[in-house]
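Module 6 notes. Inverse folding takes a fixed backbone as the condition and produces residue identities as the prediction. Think of it as a translation problem where the source language is geometry and the target language is the twenty amino acids. Below is one complete input and output pair. Work through it position by position during the lab.
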């Protein structure tokens, strides 16, 4: 598809996407203490963010009180996109807005049943693969059980006794787990048998979606220095494994956990991934 003609044919959708990116980047810059100069009593970054949010609000409204039949379908789709984009910006992201380490630790504990279920699925997936592929998958996913138990255990320990040292342990472990998942995705992508590869990638991604949510939560309550250290330990970057991720399935997992619409979860995941990429993950 020609990107220029796509922008021309769907200007509102393209504009909404651009505004989401602008506001997301502005939010990340604000978190990092980057202001780009002052604007009245605030900063240029906050001004850009506010203008972007306001424009998204305008896009969320139907332009006509009685749209023609020819434009009803496309107009409705665009209005829904604008509405969900505005909601995503106005509501705190469930896995990116941890008010404190305690909040994050509790959310990690809340994810425990889903994480344990996903890891159990990984453990049983080898039996579904071709005989030649099962050892590759088993070797790639070795350590998932230990990594998940360790991270959840650290979160429970933090809830019992919040401390900087336990937060540092969670920061280190969530990156370690994320790197295990990323490496497993790359190894499983080399499986030649199409059915085996599909089973392997789907099982690993379910774990990866949850770990990515946990990483975003921990990142949200970490200092700039801590985030930089976490990113430096992240050698297999998000961009490398992105081609093997099913965004629709990830959104369904997040939406199911937080009890929210899939459309909203998609936008939240996109923002979380963008924040992670900008931080160096």
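Target side of the pair, the amino acids:
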């Amino acid at each position: 598809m020609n990107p220029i003609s796509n922008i021309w044919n769907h200007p509102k959708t393209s504009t909404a996407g651009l505004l989401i990116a602008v506001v997301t980047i502005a939010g990340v810059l604000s978190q990092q203490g980057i202001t780009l100069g002052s604007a009245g009593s605030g900063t240029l970054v906050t001004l850009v963010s506010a203008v972007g949010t306001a424009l998204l609000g305008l896009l969320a409204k139907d332009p006509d009180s009685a749209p023609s039949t020819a434009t009803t379908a496309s107009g409705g789709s665009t209005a829904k996109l604008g509405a969900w984009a505005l909601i995503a910006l106005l509501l705190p992201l469930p896995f990116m807005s941890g008010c404190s380490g305690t909040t994050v630790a509790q959310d990690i504990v809340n994810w425990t049943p889903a994480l344990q279920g996903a890891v159990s699925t990984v453990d049983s997936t080898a039996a579904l693969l071709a005989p030649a592929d099962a050892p590759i998958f088993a070797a790639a996913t070795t350590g998932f059980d230990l990594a998940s138990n360790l991270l959840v255990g650290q979160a429970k320990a933090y809830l019992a006794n919040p401390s900087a040292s336990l937060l540092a342990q969670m920061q280190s472990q969530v990156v370690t787990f994320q790197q295990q998942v990323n490496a497993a995705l790359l190894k499983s992508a080399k499986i030649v048998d199409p059915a085996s590869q599909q089973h392997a990638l789907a099982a690993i991604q379910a774990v990866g979606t949850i770990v990515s949510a946990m990483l975003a939560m921990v990142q949200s309550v970490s200092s700039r220095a801590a985030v930089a250290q976490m990113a430096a330990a992240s050698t297999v970057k998000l961009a490398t494994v992105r081609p093997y991720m099913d965004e629709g399935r990830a959104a369904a997992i997040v939406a199911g956990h937080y009890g929210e619409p899939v459309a909203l979860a998609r936008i939240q995941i996109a923002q979380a991934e963008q924040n992670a990429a900008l931080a160096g993950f």
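Reference fact for the lab report: Residues 7 and 68 are 22 Å apart (CA to CA).
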